[in-house]
Design a protein that fits this description.
Helices cover 32% and strands 12% of the residues. With 244 residues, the chain is of the alpha/beta class. It has a five-stranded mixed beta sheet with strand order 2-3-1-4-5, with helices on both faces.
């Protein structure tokens, strides 16, 4: 299968003010967020991605554009509503400080699988639709471009955390143990037997190893992106970045 780079949108005006934006229209990246998205675009410029799929919300589409602007080719760039933010219902637009006083807050922290936001979506439904979307796009890109294909999904913190939890084989109730910062990069390879999580929540580091041929030995995945087995002892890892 292909390899997906999960990118959270950069910091927004709502993030900076401690507001749960949810699906509120018009929430855009602030200057810090634009700088973060540009830096992520620079990191990914060395990887010829075949697609950049984005949540429809402005902050994700803006982040995706920074990535697209730094690609030498013209990746397919669809928008997918199944990658949009969780529907937080009546929690949307309120401050995190205020929400932390709600009785439901403790359940969100300790048992998210039991949470349905008032007037909104359940966290279990959020995970189900986002994981299905990631796997659907991954299979489509692999079918079109081959097992060495690398693509990007630009989405939201809780969405990416839920996808990573699924890839790690974690129950949704443990997903709050995962952190996904603004404009961070996480990487998942969906193999034939199981997913392999190659990185989580990174905001620096060379990614040129992702551009290697899927038949090159020991360049990035366990042995190659087509390898089904994890190397006992950890393996050799990917090749060092070229000297500049």
């Amino acid at each position: 299968m292909a390899t997906v780079i999960l990118v959270r949108h950069g910091r927004t005006t709502a993030n900076a003010s401690g507001v749960l934006a949810g699906r509120t229209p018009g929430v855009e990246l602030d200057q810090v967020g634009r700088d973060q998205a540009a830096a992520t675009g620079d990191r990914l410029a060395v990887v010829p991605v075949v697609g950049v799929v984005s949540s429809p919300l402005e902050r994700c589409r803006q982040t995706a554009q920074f990535i697209l602007n730094r690609q030498s080719g013209t990746p397919h760039a669809p928008v997918d509503a199944d990658l949009t933010e969780c529907d937080y219902g009546s929690w949307q637009g309120r401050t995190l400080e205020e929400l932390a006083k709600e009785k439901l807050w403790a359940t969100v922290q300790s048992q998210p699988s039991a949470v349905t936001f008032p007037g909104g979506e359940s966290m279990a439904a959020m995970q189900a639709r986002s994981v299905a979307a990631i796997r659907r796009h991954d299979a489509a890109f692999e079918a079109e471009h081959g097992p060495g294909a690398v693509w990007v999904a630009v989405s939201h913190g809780d969405i990416i955390k839920s996808v990573l939890a699924d890839a790690l084989g974690m129950h949704l109730d443990m997903f709050q143990r995962i952190n996904v910062g603004p404009a961070s990069v996480s990487i998942v390879h969906y193999g034939t037997g199981r997913p392999t999580v190659l990185a989580t929540n990174t905001d620096a580091g060379d990614l040129s190893w992702l551009a290697a041929s899927p038949t090159s030995a020991d360049v990035g995945l366990a042995a190659s992106p087509t390898s089904a087995d994890a190397p006992v002892g950890g393996g050799a890892g990917h090749a060092a970045p070229p000297a500049r």
